[in-house]
Specification:
Elements lengths: L4 H21 L4 E4 H24 L3 H11 L5 H12 L13 H15 L2 H9 L4 H33 L7 H31 L8 H21 L20 H17 L10 H7 L4 H11 L4 H18 L8 H7 L5 H12 L3 H6 L2
Helix pairs in contact: 1-2, 1-9, 2-3, 2-4, 2-9, 3-5, 4-7, 7-8, 8-9, 13-15
């Protein structure tokens, strides 16, 4: 059996996918459940390469419609990527809602229906062009759905970067490699839309831009991110993940001394009212290194710097409510006065500290 060059690349991709699935299965506990999403992502990619192989081999109708059935897993390609991004940038366990699987389930049921059809009926529908509209709509839905999840992924990554860049544990290189990967997949999806539009309206020769090369690009981009995760198994270690190897960074007497300085500062000065307050500025106030302060807050108090500061801001906000200031000013204005710089940050901090929303709390006053 001989293989054309594109088939060789596809077979290499399938082999790489299987290797990475096995490799990541052994280290998944080192990065929470993020690698579980990545493994599912790799399985989808490998299945799609298998489906792509059936086109290049020109197999019979049974294999063709089975390949079409496998193709429906593309509905979970970028949703799983989105789930992976959410997990590696989420302080806890992120679970995908069942709604993300609805397009896959619907398409899978339709695909199963065509697979169980008698072969002569299927071929007759195919020859009469009765399935052409279904194929076009399915492919269009796949690409648009995945493009939507790419947009959501970019938005989430941008929000994560904005929220976390002040932390000492934040590493720009991790975000950069995810951005590069997202842009590479975006380019592939855009090429996919161009090929689809060309097949529908223009029917011209687009050279190397075709389904085969697009899928090779998408699969190898996926394998790069998997290799990165395999080699750097401790990427995205969050500040609230305690590392037992650094529990003795400060001596007991140093911890007590630092706690005393923190208590003295927060009781004497309303430093938290400054919306531009940073960890570095805060550390200078108590004449301590930002590394020591960050370690103390994360390890001893189990809080990030901003969670620590926000608890004082929330207490100040509650005092304003007790003085009925909310009857003459808006909630947003009061939150700004105590040091918050956005409504979303305030709402999140209030719920974290008070276990309820600001509006619900005010109703009980």
């Amino acid at each position: 059996m001989t293989f054309i060059p594109i088939e060789i690349f596809i077979l290499i991709g399938i082999a790489q996918g299987l290797f990475l699935i096995i490799g990541l299965s052994g280290i998944r506990k080192k990065n929470k459940t993020a690698n579980d999403y990545l493994i599912a992502f790799l399985i989808v990619t490998t299945l799609l390469l298998l489906a792509r192989l059936r086109f290049t081999r020109g197999l019979d109708a049974d294999y063709m419609r089975l390949g079409r059935l496998i193709d429906v897993v593309f509905f979970m390609y970028c949703p799983l990527l989105y789930g992976y991004l959410k997990q590696v940038t989420y302080k806890g366990k992120y679970s995908m809602h069942k709604i993300h699987f609805i397009p896959l389930i619907i398409s899978l049921l339709i695909g199963i229906y065509f697979v169980i059809l008698p072969i002569d009926v299927y071929l007759q529908m195919l020859s009469k062009g009765q399935l052409e509209l279904y194929f076009i709509l399915t492919e269009l839905a796949m690409t648009l759905l995945n493009f939507t999840y790419l947009i959501l992924s970019f938005r989430h990554l941008k929000k994560y970067e904005q929220n976390e860049k002040h932390l000492l544990s934040f590493r720009q290189s991790n975000v950069t490699y995810l951005k590069v990967y997202l842009w590479s997949i975006t380019l592939c999806i855009l090429c996919w839309l161009c090929v689809l539009a060309n097949n529908l309206f223009f029917k011209t020769n687009m050279g190397i831009i075709n389904y085969g090369t697009i899928w090779i690009g998408m699969s190898f981009s996926t394998y790069i991110i998997a290799y990165y995760s395999l080699i750097h198994s401790k990427i995205f270690q969050f500040e609230n993940e305690k590392d037992n190897t650094i529990t003795n960074r400060l001596l007991p007497q140093d911890i007590e001394h630092l706690q005393a300085k923190l208590d003295a500062l927060m009781s004497k000065e309303d430093i938290y009212l400054d919306p531009k307050l940073t960890l570095q500025d805060f550390s200078k106030k108590i004449k301590a290194s930002s590394n020591d302060v960050s370690w103390f807050l994360n390890t001893i108090l189990d809080k990030s710097f901003y969670n620590y500061i926000n608890q004082f801001r929330i207490k100040a906000f509650v005092r304003k409510l007790e003085r009925n200031e909310h009857k003459t000013q808006t909630i947003l204005a009061l939150s700004m006065e105590v040091g918050f710089n956005s409504k979303s940050t305030f709402n999140k901090a209030f719920k974290l500290e008070m276990n309820e929303t600001p509006s619900h709390y005010i109703k009980k006053l």
